[in-house]
Amino acid sequence: MIRRLLAFALTFFSCTFAFAQDPAAGEDRELEQQLQAIAAALHGKVALYAENLKTGQSAGLAADEPVKTASTIKMAILLDAAEQIRAGHASFGEKLVLSHENQVEGSGVLGELDTPLALTLRDTLTLMVVLSDNTATNMAIDRLGLARINDTLKAAGLKQSYLYKKVYVPATGPMPADQPRFGLGKTTAREMAQIMARLAQCRLALDGSAAGPGDGAICATILHMLRNQQDRDGIPRYLEFLDTSEHGSAIANKTGALDALRADVALIASKAGPVVIAAYTYDNADQRWNGDNEGQQTLGKLAKAVLERWSPGGIDPASFDWENPLLGPGRDGKGSSATQP
Fold first, then answer.
1. Cα–Cα nearest to 85, from 226, 228, 253, 219
2. What share of the chain is helix, strand, coil (3-state, %, to 5)?
3. Which of 130, 132, 163, 338 is the most buried (most CB within 10 A)?
4. Per-domain boundaries in the chain
5. pTM here?
6. Which fold has domain 28-327?
7. How far is the C-alpha of 151 from the C-alpha of 158, rounded, in Å?
8. Which is it for strands 162-163 and 185-187: parallel, antiparallel or unpaired?
9. pLDDT tens, 309-327?
10. Is 268 left (phi over 0), alpha (psi -120 to 50) or beta?
11. pLDDT at 326
């Protein structure tokens, strides 16, 4: 009897120890320690949330701290566009007209072109993502509606994410009291990861109902835009080295930048399952606008640590079904806090 009790005790403690060391068992504390060490070296602050949508592994640093979004708020516009298209209130092929009055400075090319100029909604969203075109962003906001975009965020359960205004256009009308602090938009790393997870798993029904017949095509179109995003100095920095314009990227992402902020939100096709990372470096001392920016390099180091921990085999674009995310791994989101707002 005593031998049986001893054997049971040894088995119990061995299993308990193994569970505690298993990085696939929910929150990965060891990874968080590695990420904290990287963050501590930055002359600034870090907010991050990462999750493997297949295994449920997760890690976070100040994941629920509200931060300025910069251009990562354009992910909210993509989510609302998907909602309106699936509801029949918009279509990728519909025509929008660029006017001189809507041209603004900053990133992109539309501000430099002759007007009037006709573009499809698909073209507009593509430029908003691939080049982070601010004029295209404002065209999309005009078409979809600022209030409607924020209603979609609220319906998705995102309580700390908000788009206040158009880009380089003063805020108008009644504004939340915190608008001057955040500028264009606010979010948290966890909530921005939730938006990317929705697109990755193609969970467009905000009420939790079953996917519609056209949802897969909508998600595939949006993920195609994000895979072609051309700023590769953040999360992809130390992960992918091929010419992705020829070979197809394993990373779909949207970046954002301000003088003292660098941000990136990504879906990564790892060999161990799709990984979403939303990372923000802010209050940065280094305010250089080049690839050597410390905050930008830190984003790459954080992403590299996540992938080395969770997917030692690396990344592979073929490991994710980009053409129909409804068929991809991690679709059910079981055990996932990013996918369960």
1. 219
2. 45, 15, 40
3. 338
4. 28-327
5. 0.89
6. Beta-lactamase (3.40.710)
7. 10
8. antiparallel
9. 999 999 999 999 999 998 7
10. beta
11. 86
